[in-house]
Specification:
By secondary structure, the protein is of the alpha/beta class. It is built from 10 helices and 9 strands.
């Protein structure tokens, strides 16, 4: 994930910003209503990327990956619409408590940019994605960097069209969605009124979009490491932040670990899950890596 990559991450202030004032208000609606569900995973299960993860001789990468992690951020669905049979195979290969969090295909978000021609594509995408059944987590839409507030009407129409049986998270990257207080409030209100989560992206070169505004009971977080020692301290800060949000009412933690070079993502995930289990009292499985009895990342 190259978005927000910088050459000298040690020069970046990675301090997590203060919460938006309305985040606590949004979370308060859910306080005391059930347990918090926690899913932590990587962005892909490709052996070429995750070289430190798969034991020699692993024949089925997804089957092994899903024996170690409880979810995957399914980026592959951004590039094309897979046939229904492929989703059924993914479903059958994974444990009963495993979840997929697929990205909406780029034909909807980047090529057609939510215009009229995007909707037949979206319908096709949802029809096949539904084959994940009970293993389907939140679907997420990531808009292009240059998709700004001038496209507000398209966003409203998309939200109104979206079938409510599918959970949705939306990611906006153009700075004008957050720099203009009036625009930001209208966007947050739209998401909150329609139970859509506001995706958070933590990456080195775009600290300006760390809006820290949750709009429902879900924290959908895409964390991008910089292949640098600061990756670990940043994750420690997220453990503290999620613990705070949990106390305020957060019910769904969906946290996905990326790196600019993905091969070490499982190592970061292990550290994060260990700290999360200790702080939140959760019992997520600690994934095995090839470095369990050898060197660490840095």
């Amino acid at each position: 994930m190259k978005f927000g990559k910088v050459e000298q991450p040690e020069l970046i202030d990675f301090t997590i910003p203060n919460d938006h004032p309305d985040t606590e208000v949004a979370l308060s609606k859910y306080k005391g209503k059930g347990e918090t569900n926690i899913y932590v995973g990587c962005a892909k299960w490709n052996r070429q990327d995750l070289k430190s993860f798969y034991p020699r001789g692993t024949k089925d990468e997804l089957a092994y990956y899903s024996s170690q992690f409880n979810c995957i951020e399914l980026n592959a669905t951004f590039y094309r619409i897979f046939p229904a049979e492929q989703y059924k195979k993914w479903y059958d290969k994974t444990p009963s408590d495993f979840k997929f969090f697929p990205k909406i295909v780029q034909n909807v978000s980047h090529l057609r940019r939510l215009n009229d021609e995007a909707y037949p594509v979206l319908d096709e995408y949802l029809n096949v994605t539904a084959n994940l059944k009970d293993k389907l987590g939140t679907i997420f839409l990531q808009m292009h960097n240059n998709f700004g507030p001038k496209n507000w009407d398209r966003v409203v129409r998309f939200v109104e069209y979206w079938p409510k049986e599918f959970r949705l998270s939306m990611e906006f990257r153009h700075t004008d969605w957050f720099n203009d207080a009036k625009v930001a409030q209208e966007l947050y209100h739209l998401l909150e009124e329609n139970n859509i989560s506001n995706t958070l992206v933590d990456t080195a070169g775009r600290r300006d979009i760390m809006h820290m505004r949750l709009t429902n009971d879900e924290a959908f977080i895409r964390y991008v490491g910089a292949n640098h020692p600061t990756d670990y301290t940043r994750l420690d800060d997220w453990v503290q932040k999620l613990a705070d949000w949990k106390e305020k009412g957060l019910k769904n933690i969906h946290f996905f670990v990326h790196q600019n070079m993905e091969l070490e993502s499982p190592l970061l995930s292990v550290r994060f899950i260990e700290k999360l289990n200790k702080k939140l009292g959760s019992n997520l499985k600690i994934p095995k890596t090839l470095y369990d009895s050898g060197p660490t990342l840095f």
